[in-house]
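Lab notes, practical 5.
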Amino acid sequence: MTDEIEKMGKSLLRHDHRDGQAVLMYLDPGDAPGIVADLERVAISRGYTKVCARIPAAHARHFVAAGYQLEAAIPHFYGEGDTGCFMTRFFVKEQMLERAPMLRNAVLATTELQPPAPAVTLAEGGTLRLARAADVDRVAALYGEVGVAKSAAVHDPRFLEAALNRGDLFLGVWVAEAPVAICAAHLDAASGSGELAHFAVNPQHRGRGHALLLLQGMAQALSPLGVRLLWSAVRAYAPGINITFARGGYCYGGTLTNSTNIYGTLESVNVWYKALGDDPALAWGSVFPSSPA
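Output from the prediction step:
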């Protein structure tokens, strides 16, 4: 069952039918505070277990008064001084309980010990570039081989073609014109942010720093497009991807409890973010520009 996007006033609400929850993706200031009651009516009428809202901090008090709790925050998400708040209201108490708190804490403790990663060098014979429409079959084949934890049809070339047409970007490491590592970026022009998702690395090419290379490459590719902040929500119980973001200079913003269907089970995800203006490598890149073709 596919997600459904609904306009509530001038705001955008995503219905996640598979997981029985709704996500307020965009809050138009003119819809607050009345939209808080509208969200409750939607949740009760449809039997949702939770509602998540990504909103500016200036409106957080209306949600807190209605029983929402702050789970993650990204400073300057909407611009200078305007924090983005990830608010959640649980309608089923069991979903409020973290399934593996000790494991989550152990993963986060590991990330705190990580030194910043140096610039990753592309191996000889490899190419770092953005995927094109002609590449969707090969990109889909990589996703199909590796598998993606989150529920997304990235193994379907038609899904990838539609994603490219709406402006999503896929950056990959290519060897002999075949992708061996890939990740996606969903751009939000209104906030100047980009959400990174759908990381996949061919098992035969793991351990070579490709995920870090993709993080660095995405920053270099997106900064000239006006993207000033990158963020991602990754599996809270997976050490590798959390360590990658920590070593890539990303900051931990919080944990969204039992928020994402991963291999058929709801799991928590950690929010990581990075302000591109704080990256010295990009400062040098503005003097000596170089971005993936």
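Observations recorded by the TA: DSSP finds eight helices and 13 strands in the chain. The helical segments are 34-46, 60-65, 101-112, 136-146, 157-165, 210-222, 239-247, 280-287.
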